[in-house]
Structure formats: C-alpha cells, structure tokens
Amino acid sequence: MDEHRLGLKPIVGKMWAERGKAPTVAVEHRYAWLYVYAFVCPQTGESQYWLVPSVDTLAFQAVLDRFARDTGAGQRREIVLVLDGAGWHCGPQLTCPEGLHPVFLPPYSPELQPAERLWALTDMPLRNCHFPALDALTERLAAQCRWLEG
Asked: Does the chain have fewer CB atoms within 10 Å around its N or its C terminus?
C-alpha cells in the first residue's frame, strides 16, 4: 500500500513532435492536490485504488477499513500489508482492521515498496496535460484507475 500525490501542477514528460519543431506543453503552476491510495498484490498484480482529498490518519483509516471489507480480511483471510513509516500509517489513533497485519519498511527504502511501481501507470494519461480544475484531473485519473483495476 502506498500514496501518491497528483495535482494541477503538470507532469511533464517525453512526447512526439514534428521533425524540426519543438514540442510545447501548457504549464500553469497551481497547487491543488489529490491523493491516490493504492494497494497491490505483488504475486498477482491485482490492485485497488482510492482517490482521496487528503493524506492523514482519518483518510487512511477510512481507506484501510474499506480495503479490509472489500477483500474479506478477517479470521478466514489474513493479509500482510507492507507500509512505509509515514506518521499516518502508525499513529496511536489508527486501528488496524482484523485480518490485516502491517509490516513496516525500513526508512528511505522506496525500492522495497511494491506499490511504488504503480505510479508510472497512474500518471501515464496525465503526462503533458493541462487541467483547468481538479475535477477534470479527477475524472481522467478515476478512468485510468478503473482501467488498471479491470
């Protein structure tokens, strides 16, 4: 499980252009954010995504509860959840649902986090795009997340 921040500040990447012409991308630096919470099973590639307006203990608790319910975690199904050491992953207010067992990665080790590999896929349709508002970004991102889950 991991979180990824996306917003109205564009993701600029490589793109095709006519020979002899420089490619242009509309860029308007605006700071409005949206967070993608993603869970992935490294063995099967099965993944689940949530688009959330904030990243904090309350939001993480809601997503964790829903994930446990959707996956059937409990006495009959145990799930090991690999998490980084973010404060909202291990705060005293957080209660881990039955059947979920958090395992924390060592500090500064994103290469060990299986969910890190998802961000290039979620960013793909957003690259070099200008969104007039957060709603337009949310629509495109939600479509991509549904496609990745399917």
From this structure: C
Instruction: Read off the CATH number of the domain in which 126 is found.
Output: 3.30.420.10
Confidence of residue 90 (pLDDT cuts 50, 70, 90): confident
Q: Find the domain containing 28 and state its range.
A: 2-149
Measured CA to CA, the distance from residue 36 to residue 26 in angstroms comes to 24
CA distances from 52 to 23, 71, 99, 125, 141 (A): 33, 19, 23, 19, 12
84 close to 116: Cβ distance less than 8 angstroms? no
**pLDDT score at 120:** 93
Full DSSP string of 84-150: ---GGGS-TT--PPTTEEEEEPPTT-GGG-GGGGGHHHHHGGGBT---SSHHHHHHHHHHHHHHHH-
**pTM exceeding 0.90:** no
Phi, psi (deg, nearest 5) at residue 36? -105, 125
* Spatial distance between the Cα atoms of 108 and 100, rounded to a whole number of angstroms: 23
Q: How many domains does the chain have?
A: 1
As a whole number, the mean pLDDT across the chain is 92
